[in-house]
From TrEMBL:
<dbReference type="InterPro" id="IPR036390">
    <property type="entry name" value="WH_DNA-bd_sf"/>
</dbReference>
<dbReference type="GO" id="GO:0003700">
    <property type="term" value="F:DNA-binding transcription factor activity"/>
</dbReference>
<dbReference type="InterPro" id="IPR023187">
    <property type="entry name" value="Tscrpt_reg_MarR-type_CS"/>
</dbReference>
<keyword id="KW-0238">DNA-binding</keyword>
<dbReference type="GO" id="GO:0003677">
    <property type="term" value="F:DNA binding"/>
</dbReference>
<feature type="domain" description="HTH marR-type">
    <location>
        <begin position="3"/>
        <end position="135"/>
    </location>
</feature>
<protein>
    <submittedName>
        <fullName>Transcriptional regulator, MarR family</fullName>
    </submittedName>
</protein>
<dbReference type="InterPro" id="IPR036388">
    <property type="entry name" value="WH-like_DNA-bd_sf"/>
</dbReference>
<keyword id="KW-0805">Transcription regulation</keyword>
<keyword id="KW-0804">Transcription</keyword>
<dbReference type="InterPro" id="IPR000835">
    <property type="entry name" value="HTH_MarR-typ"/>
</dbReference>
<dbReference type="Pfam" id="PF12802">
    <property type="entry name" value="MarR_2"/>
</dbReference>
């Protein structure tokens, strides 16, 4: 095995990709995590906070705080679930939907730039390896924190 620090490399990728996405998505008053959450809500309207927590691997309190900020800035709205009155379904507002085209364009550009020079075979290998690393990371987190 090479002496590269995989964690450091993943951190470099994450930080730079996050910075690029933040600059590319015009959403005033909200941070990177809230932008990521807004994109998920805009792409999949009607999800619950719990579903988003599971999808993004964030604790419920973090998701609740982020949603509160998105509501306060007029990007999302809550609607009580008619099937389960304890739950709220989340929907993008008109203002929230204006962010989506920028986010999709930025995602596409980022993917193109991150995989520039890769053959189709290399791209498939990279995707498979990253899926395995991500799955292992989730399992590592779960094994070290039984309350999650």
């Amino acid at each position: 095995m090479k002496d590269n620090n995989i964690g450091m490399l993943l951190s470099i990728i994450h930080r730079n990709l996050s910075a690029f996405m933040d600059c590319s998505i015009p959403a005033e008053g909200i941070g990177h995590g809230q932008k990521r959450l807004l994109i998920e809500i805009a792409l999949n309207p009607g999800r619950t906070q719990e579903e988003l927590s599971e999808l993004l691997l964030k604790d419920k309190t973090t998701i609740a705080r982020a949603i509160k900020g998105l509501e306060e800035h007029g990007y999302v709205r809550k609607e009580r679930n008619s099937k389960d009155k304890r739950e709220f379904l989340l929907y993008p507002t008109e203002k929230g939907l204006t962010v989506l085209p920028f986010a999709l364009k930025a995602r596409s550009k980022a993917l193109m730039e991150l995989t520039k020079g890769f053959t189709d075979e290399e791209y498939c290998l990279l995707e498979n390896f990253l899926c395995r690393v991500a799955e292992n990371a989730v399992n590592l987190r779960k094994s070290s924190a039984p309350h999650l």
